[in-house]
Specification:
Blueprint (H helix, E strand, L loop, with lengths): L2 E3 L4 H7 L9 H7 L1 E9 L9 H18 L17 E7 L8 H10 L1 E5 L22 H13 L2 E3 L5 H10 L5 E2 L16 H10 L2 E4 L3 H4 L7 H16 L3 E3 L19 H10 L4 H19 L3
Parallel strand pairs: 1-2, 2-3, 3-4, 4-5, 6-7, 7-8
Helix pairs in contact: 1-3, 4-5, 9-10
Length: about 300
Amino acid sequence: MIICDSHCDVLYTRVFHPEETEVVTLENMKKGGVSLQVCTFFSGSRGIEKHPYEAGMKEYYEFKRLVAENGWKQAWSPAEAVEGESKAMLSIEGGEILEGSTARVDEFYGYGVRMIALTWNRENEIGHPAKLGADQGIKPVGWNILRRMAELRIAADTSHLNEAGFWDLIHRHSQPPMASHSCVRKLCDHYRNLRDDQIRAMIECGGWIGVNFYPFFLSSDGKADAKRICDHIDYICQMGGEKTVGLGSDFDGIDVAPTDVRTPADVPNILEELRRRGYSETAIQDIAGRNFIQYYSRLGWN
């Protein structure tokens, strides 16, 4: 079975918090059968004025070191995911790393970035984050960047983006967006989660949603396990999104994890819970990874 996880912050942890023990390791990926792990370049609390590009580049060089010295393998597209191997694909979380430049889009595409979360929790040149409650949509510079992303088949990631920006992407962007690490707002009323109309729009436009493993996005009391992750997956499936949903752990970007899904080695616990709920092996394979790969095929990656 091919398993894809659309978001983790291991590169940020290794570069900026080396005192912490990362959970996304090659050993854990192999134990859990994770075929494709998306690793993001994240500038953290650095706003536009604090050189986020430099932070992203430090993380890129750390990734190059993992490939050169630690046996990691880079995937240049999701289509390279295969059962029995563990590879990493690159993304950006927080478009401020691009510094408002389409040339930076080309640069990071050359490094292997295939997904860009347009914002994190700060306003940037592209748009506004959900956290600040702004009602403005994508900025003019943002549309220039999005056009170039579409030409290069880089996915537009709505996780962290405000609702106005989300609907701009649904109605005006030339390619279906995705949400790399977001949950269901009806099950946990947090600004980072997706409302039913947003989920429905993702299903209808051919987008994709990776369910986040952060307990405080899964449950109002911050308590979660594989069953609670599957509650969110099942909710999206019941809305007709059985071909739209997958896994977006946020490992190494969350300070607590579900009790029985603490590392990539534990991902099979989610799949086993889906079996207990009566999901077919075909449906489980779709949720585990095929939906993610098919989403990228709709962007032109085959």
